[in-house]
Amino acid sequence: MNDLQAWTQRAEQVVAETLSSLPPPLRERARALALSYEWVPGPAWIEEGVEADSLGLFTGSTWEEQRAGAENLPPLVTLFIENLVEFSEGRFDVFDEEVRITFLHELGHYLGLDEEELADRGLE
Question: Total domain count for the chain?
C-alpha cells in the first residue's frame, strides 16, 4: 500500500466516525453527499480559482437548492489528502482533527452556511 492509499484510508475512517457522531437528521443529509479523496486540486480547479493548498472543496447544489428542485450538479465534498498531510506535518492527531474540521466545513457549505457562519462554529 502506498502513502496515498494509507492516508486516504485514514481520512475515510475519520469521515465515517464524524458521520456517525452527527445527530440523525444531519447524518441523513450528510450521507446524501458524494465524497471524493484527491491528492491535490487539479489544474482545472486551480484555473477556476481554487487555491493549490486547499484542504477541501464543496461543489454542486446545496441541500436547499436540491429541496427547491433546482438541482444542477450533484453535491460533492472533495478532501485533498496531500494538502491535509502537509498541513498536519504528518502528525496523525492533527491530520485526523483537520480531516474532521474540513469535512464539517464543506458539509456546512452543502447546508448553505457561508464562511462567517462556519467560522462562528469553529469550522474555519
Answer: 1
CATH code: domain of residue 82: 3.30.2010.20
Q: DSSP states of 25-81 as a string? A: HHHHHHHTSEEEEESS--HHHHHTT--TT-SEEEES--HHHHHTT---S--EEEEEH
| pLDDT digits 0-9 by tens, 74-118 | 889 999 999 999 999 999 999 999 999 999 999 998 888 888 887
Burial of 79 (0-12, 13-18, 19+ CB in 10 A): buried
How many CA atoms are closer than 13 Å to the CA of 92, on its beta-carbon side?
5
Instruction: Return the residue matching grid coordinates 462567517.
Output: 116
Distance CA 8, CA 15 (A): 10
